């Protein structure tokens, strides 16, 4: 599987231990009615319903039961038959579970409360008229709302509601900009020479800081970009500057030299480790007339408006900003 911290190659299986998945789910593939992640046709993945935020046993049972009676033909058909909790239906729309039936997520989010109110009115609080709903039911007219969900929108929704990404790896959204910064992708490292300068970018996977036989401590920092995992080695002399960055950041820009030989294998010996979000924020601040506030205690980037307030503080993490999408919570 793909791991937003562990991409290998399109079509690889996501390991059970991986908390997140990346790329490889075919467009429009609905979530699978199971707790796990299963391979699907076309070298794709189907993500289990239990990964979805607020999905409970009642909703799972209703979906399973109705699927045994036949496939769902539309969102209205799904909602009418399953009667799942409103927040669960909203989250399913936001992660694209109905894209193969109706790809306009904004339209479905507009229609959901209308459907909910109509079902409540027809069924009554006791639910005794549930069997009559189909005869009285007609889908609401389209709102005509048009809003294209960008890849950033989809990735943010997936990280918030699934804890993993199925559209793409977050850093793949920034590959062009990273290339302009001189960043080398992980798949290019094996073809490079030994002891050459290199700059890489990646999301945190894990860090180990063992004592070595020399009596000194060395940090082994495992990062992942859109193509795979790689190791960075941070020696004790660099730790006073590197350790605080590792403790607070999620995405990293690492400058150092490439170790690529048979004796020690492939790794980056880090000379400098920076918070990638802060680096991108400063680059964009120089290019834009809109000032950017850097908050070292939490999110690294917020829009600052004309009155001097950082209005983005009241928004969900990453919403409406240029910050890299990340898992919430």
What can you tell me about this protein's structure?
The chain has helices at 57-69, 75-82, 86-94, 105-123, 133-136, 151-161, 175-180, 239-248, 276-287; strands spanning 37-40, 44-47, 196-208, 219-225, 228-234, 251-261, 265-275, 292-293, 302-303. α3 packs antiparallel against α4. The chain is an alpha+beta fold. It is elongated. The protein is 28% helix and 19% strand. A hairpin with a 3-residue loop joins β1 and β2. The chain has a 5-stranded mixed β-barrel with strand order 3-4-5-7-6. The chain contains 9 helices and 9 strands. The two termini are 22 Å apart. The protein has 3 domains: 37-161, no CATH class; 171-275, Nucleic acid-binding proteins (OB fold (Dihydrolipoamide Acetyltransferase, E2P)); 277-314, no CATH class.
């Amino acid at each position: 599987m793909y791991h937003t911290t562990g991409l290998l190659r399109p079509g690889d299986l996501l390991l059970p231990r991986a908390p997140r998945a990346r790329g490889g789910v075919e467009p429009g593939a609905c979530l699978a009615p199971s707790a796990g992640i299963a391979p699907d046709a076309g070298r794709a993945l189907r993500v289990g319903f239990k990964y979805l935020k607020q999905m409970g046993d009642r909703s799972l049972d209703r979906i399973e039961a109705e699927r045994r009676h036949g496939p769902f033909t539309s969102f209205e058909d799904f909602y009418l038959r399953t009667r799942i909790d409103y927040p669960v239906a909203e989250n399913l729309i936001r992660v694209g579970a109905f894209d193969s039936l109706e790809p306009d997520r904004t339209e479905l989010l507009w229609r959901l409360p209308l459907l909910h109110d109509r079902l409540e009115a027809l069924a009554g609080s006791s639910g005794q008229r549930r069997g009559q709903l189909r005869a009285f039911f007609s889908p609401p007219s389209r709102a005509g709302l048009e809003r294209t969900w960008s890849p950033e929108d989809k990735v943010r929704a997936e990280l918030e509601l699934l804890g993993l990404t199925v559209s793409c790896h977050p850093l793949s959204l920034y590959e062009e900009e990273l290339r302009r910064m001189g960043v080398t992708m992980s798949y290019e490292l094996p073809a490079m020479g030994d002891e050459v300068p290199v700059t890489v970018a990646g999301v945190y996977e894990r860090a180990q800081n063992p004592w070595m036989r020399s009596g000194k401590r060395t940090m082994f920092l495992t990062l992942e970009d859109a193509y795979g995992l790689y190791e960075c080695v941070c020696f004790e002399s660099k730790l006073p500057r590197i350790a605080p960055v590792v403790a607070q950041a999620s995405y990293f820009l690492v400058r150092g030299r490439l170790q690529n030989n048979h004796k020690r294998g492939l790794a980056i010996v880090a000379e400098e480790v920076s918070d990638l979000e802060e680096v991108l924020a400063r680059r964009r601040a120089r290019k834009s007339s809109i000032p950017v506030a850097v908050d070292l205690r939490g999110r690294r980037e917020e829009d600052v408006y004309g009155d001097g307030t950082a209005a983005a503080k009241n928004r969900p993490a990453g919403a409406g900003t240029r910050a890299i999408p990340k898992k919430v919570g």
